[in-house]
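R.M. (postdoc): so does anyone remember the format we settled on? I'll just put the structure tokens first.
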């Protein structure tokens, strides 16, 4: 009994608070913190930050480590802000999709106005931080990336055209370019190629997701490619975009902007991505109403696409560090 009272504490009058009443306070705080972190779309954020970091690492010059860390933090803040505003705007369709219905805003755990305010403040702070830590060009590109994701992709394209991912993919392609400009205050050929790689990677990545989540998108009225053009055409587009991605990923080495380590890695990873795209193309499942647990080739391709981008950029960083 003594242990229970000691662990629970006392109220303002000095009376003991039962442990079973006081204990839930900490889990509640942690749960709320987790909801705010979820609002930032942490999985997407990590990949965005990594590509931005690699863009910074492969840029010529030697930036101050502290300022470089602050620039990466600004990229992370911008990515999180974009995710928060996206969740605020898409709360109606998120509530209709099984994959997203548990998010903090449609789940009612974070208010819509609070989510929007959080995202806007974070966005403004990220641009100002980049301006102070790096330069005006990097800050301007960071602002453009946020505005593009929010207004072009989320507000304009996502609910209107099956090309939403194709055009909207530019938003996720900015970080490497921003990382480079944070160091150099200029734009070079290599970061432009990195932008192109992420731009071409985005459609097969997200269309693989949409293949096994097509019922969610159909229910919410989002015109993703499988809903509008069918599963077979989506698989064909995944294959075609993968074929376009692989040679572009080899251009840094072909143009002398990266070395053998990157070139060999890009070739092997490209062959792997192509193999997964072929497996998706060969999938005979063409009917709607398929359970989300089905479409195994699409799920495998989606998972591999994440590893592909991470390993490709890691190989570029290693290539530069090895000289």
């Amino acid at each position: 009994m003594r242990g229970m009272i000691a662990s629970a504490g006392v109220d303002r009058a000095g009376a003991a608070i039962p442990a079973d009443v006081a204990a839930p306070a900490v889990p509640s705080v942690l749960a709320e913190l987790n909801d705010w972190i979820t609002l930032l779309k942490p999985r997407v954020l990590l990949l965005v930050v990594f590509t931005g970091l690699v863009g910074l690492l492969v840029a010529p010059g030697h930036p101050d480590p502290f300022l470089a860390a602050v620039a990466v933090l600004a990229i992370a803040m911008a990515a999180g802000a974009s995710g928060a505003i996206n969740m605020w705007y898409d709360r109606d369709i998120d509530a209709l999709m099984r994959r997203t219905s548990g998010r903090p805003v449609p789940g009612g755990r974070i208010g819509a106005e609070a989510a929007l305010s959080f995202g806007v403040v974070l966005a403004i702070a990220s641009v100002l931080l980049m301006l102070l830590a790096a330069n005006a060009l990097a800050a301007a590109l960071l602002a453009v990336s946020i505005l593009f994701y929010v207004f072009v992709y989320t507000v304009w394209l996502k609910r209107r055209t099956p090309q939403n991912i194709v055009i909207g993919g530019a938003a996720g392609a900015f970080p490497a370019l921003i990382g480079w400009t944070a160091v150099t205050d200029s734009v070079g050929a290599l970061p432009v190629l990195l932008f192109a790689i992420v731009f071409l990677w985005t459609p097969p990545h997200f269309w693989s997701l949409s293949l096994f989540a097509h019922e969610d998108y159909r229910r919410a009225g989002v015109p993703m490619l499988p809903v509008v053009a069918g599963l077979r055409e989506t698989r064909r587009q995944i294959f075609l975009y993968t074929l376009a991605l692989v040679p572009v990923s080899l251009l840094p080495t072909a143009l002398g902007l990266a070395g053998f380590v990157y070139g060999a890695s890009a070739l092997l990873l490209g062959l792997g991505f192509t193999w997964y795209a072929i497996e998706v193309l060969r999938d005979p499942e063409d009917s709607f109403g398929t359970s989300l647990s089905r479409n195994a080739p699409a799920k495998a391709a989606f998972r591999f696409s994440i590893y592909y981008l991470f390993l490709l950029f890691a190989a570029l960083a290693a290539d530069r560090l090895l000289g």
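R.M.: ...and that's the designed sequence above, right after the tokens. Also worth knowing: The chain is about 75% helix and 0% strand. The chain has two domains: 45-186, 188-323.
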